[in-house]
Amino acid sequence: MKGNEALAEAAIRVGADAYFGYPITPQSEIIEYLMTARPEDRTGMVVLQAESEIAAINMVYGAAGCGKKALTSSSSPGMSLKQEGISYIAGAELPCVLVNVVRGGPGLGTIQPSQSDYFQSVKGGGHGDYKLIVLAPASVQESVDYMKLAFELAFKYRNPVMIQSDGIIGQMMEKVELFEQMPRVEPDYEWATIGKKEGKPATFVTSLQLQAEEQEKVNHRLQAKYREIEQNEVRFETTMCEDADYLLTAFGSCARITRKAMEMARAKGYKVGLMRPQTLYPFPTQEFNRLAGQVKGILCVEMNAGQMVEDVKLSVCGKTKVEHFGRFGGVIPNPDEILLALEQKIIGG
Amino acid sequence: MSENLIKPENLVYKKTDALTDRVMHYCPGCGHGTAHRILAEVIEEMGIQNQTIGVAPVGCSVLAYYYFNVDMQEAAHGRAPAVATGIKRVFPEKYVFTYQGDGDLAAIGTAETIHAINRGENILIVFINNGIYGMTGGQMAPTTLQGMKSSTSPFGRDTKTMGAPLKITELIAQLPGAYFVTRQSVHKPGNVRKAKRAIKKALEYQKLDKGTCFVEIVSNCPSNWKMTPVQSNQWMEENMFPYYPLGDIKVPEEN
After folding, report:
1. Mean pLDDT in each 10-residue stretch from start to end of chain A (349 residues)?
2. E strand segments, chain B
3. Of A78, A156, A265, B47, which residue is least crowded by CB atoms under 10 Å?
4. How many CB atoms lie within 10 A of CB A233?
């Protein structure tokens, strides 16, 4: 199955109540698949093409505020347009799933794959102090699995969760095992607007606190939640790190290419391991710090000009050398140049 | 207290349960309080308080969710029709309304307004048009009249450089998705009664699933128009009503 189509099918199977989206390359297959699959007949799921990315994210706000499982998807320029709504959703503490099939930027950029939205996804994107949980699938299978995980985490923490895919994973075809259809559930959350209950005060969903002290309380509550997420939800995958002298790190599709470079380095006799963060937020800080005590250097490989490398550096606190190798603007690195960079910047450097 | 003193058979008037007891923050003489009240009264009279979900805008009525005793969501500036779309699509059996001002609905939210109505979203949009940005302190709105002074048109609105006041209600009435479109006011008892009837009709139509109902209420802003409440109502009659004439603009064909 194609990555984007697998995401769409997973959204139906997870029992999502509503999808709101707007076409943009390279993720339009998500809404096209959903429109064709007629989920309204299968599960009663609503699929609607909005007039803009802005409208789509605000429709998600409305549905999520009703306690329903809602999602939207887009690619980089469209994701920029959604940032206002995402900030409101984070502020109002609503659960939802966002899919960003990243393409090269800035501006209209290119329709080719990229990872240059790391900062936007991980560091906030919109205004105010808030965090998204960011999942980075490296395969079509993980895209499917993360759709389920994303909704679980979104409702567990009442927080928006982003699946940060890219043009490679979205467009490539792989074998995939789909989970069984899950039922849609009728929401009964006290925070959701489902109609006022007799004898109880009305519910409202808002991100507004006009009193500074009240807004600070909201921020403290959010920060406490983020610390809990950092405690509980870090996910990563390490490959051949036990005896590693050198470490490669990459996320998403780039980690697949970097793994090949690791195998080539091993064949040349270098003890190289691969660390792949699966959650970009919360970041696997402790694991990086631990590995930093063991290896002589870390090369962070990204399809951007150097974004995750900043979090790697913060994690290792100067314990070991950290370098970045990136191709960007839609160009995909090949394993040979990654190996060369590893030899020049880390092993020989 | 009053309930203890007045026998039920003698009670001629009481606050609707669809409003909370919270003191409204609106300025003296402002139409928002009356508009809130008639909408809330209709909700109570129809017995739909527990089936109604409202959407508050950004603007003077940003805190409307404190006053309406129904479940509500606070939308980003201009996005209320999109938020209402999200609500109505997942809860088609609920009554959904937005309550928006002119800057919210006719400037920053124009796209959301037009497209929600064009899709015929089965919601009620209550549009308060006072020709000014109230909450931010009296800046020019899309509906500010020609020559009207505001803090961002201090020498009066020059339509050559600032555009003409936008008759968004006439605009959206042309959309097939608009089912019932009317323009009302709440500055006199007779008008209040008419506006309330219009809102009631609009909410009753929501049961029919025929499209968007849109009730504009031309209103005043004594604070930012820098007038007394009485003066502002006179000014509204003399200046706003000729440009924004009251009455039904689109009524269902079967009526």
Report:
1. 98 98 97 98 98 98 98 98 98 98 96 97 95 98 98 98 97 97 95 96 96 97 98 98 98 98 98 98 98 98 98 98 97 98 94
2. 52-56, 71-74, 95-101, 124-129, 132-133, 139-140, 178-185, 212-218, 247-250
3. B47
4. 17
Q: CA B174 from chain center: how many Å?
A: 19
Q: Under an 8 A CB cutoff, do B85 and A194 touch? A: no
Tell me if chain B has a CB within 8 Å of the CB of A90. no
Evaluated on CA atoms A14, A19, A24, A28, the torsion sign reads: positive
| CB-CB under 8 Å, B112 with A55 | yes
Tell me how far apart the alpha carbons of residues B101 and B145 are, in angstroms, rounded to a whole number: 15
Q: Which of A89, A51, A57 is nearest to A73 (CA)?
A: A57
Residue reference for tokens 């499982």? A69
Nearest 5°: the CA angle B171, B172, B177 is 145
Q: SS3 of B133, please?
A: strand
Q: Which domains does chain A have, with CATH numbers?
A: 3-194+221-232 (3.40.50.970), 236-347 (3.40.50.920)
Greatest extent of chain A over all pairs of C-alpha atoms, in Å = 73
Q: Does A128 touch chain B (CB under 8 A)?
A: no
Tokens 């799933």, located at residue: A97
Residue with tokens 């800046």, as numbered in its chain: B139
HEC string for A89-134? HHHHCCCEEEEEEEECCCCCCCCCECCCCHHHHHCCCCCCCCCCEE
Q: Two tokens at B182?
A: 């009317």
Cis peptide before A95 (omega within 30 of 0): no
Give the pLDDT confidence of A287-297 residue by residue, as tens digits. Answer: 999 999 999 99
Beta partners for residue A71, in sequence order: A19, A97
Enter the CATH code of domain B17-250.
3.40.50.970
Asked if ipTM goes beyond 0.90, one says yes
Among B241, A222, A268, which residue's Cα sits nearest to residue B232?
B241
Q: A256 exposed, middle or buried (CB, 10 Å; 0-12, 13-18, 19+)?
A: middle
Instruction: Print burial letters for B210-244: b (CB count within 10 Å at least 16), e (below 16).
Output: bbbbbbbbbbbbbbbbebebeebbebbbebbeeeb
- Which of A20, A40, A54, A58 would best serve as a mutation to test chain B binding (most B beta carbons within 10 A)? A58
pLDDT for B202-246, tens place per residue? Answer: 999 999 999 999 999 999 999 999 999 999 999 999 999 999 999
- Compute the nearest-CA separation of B65 from chain A (Å): 6
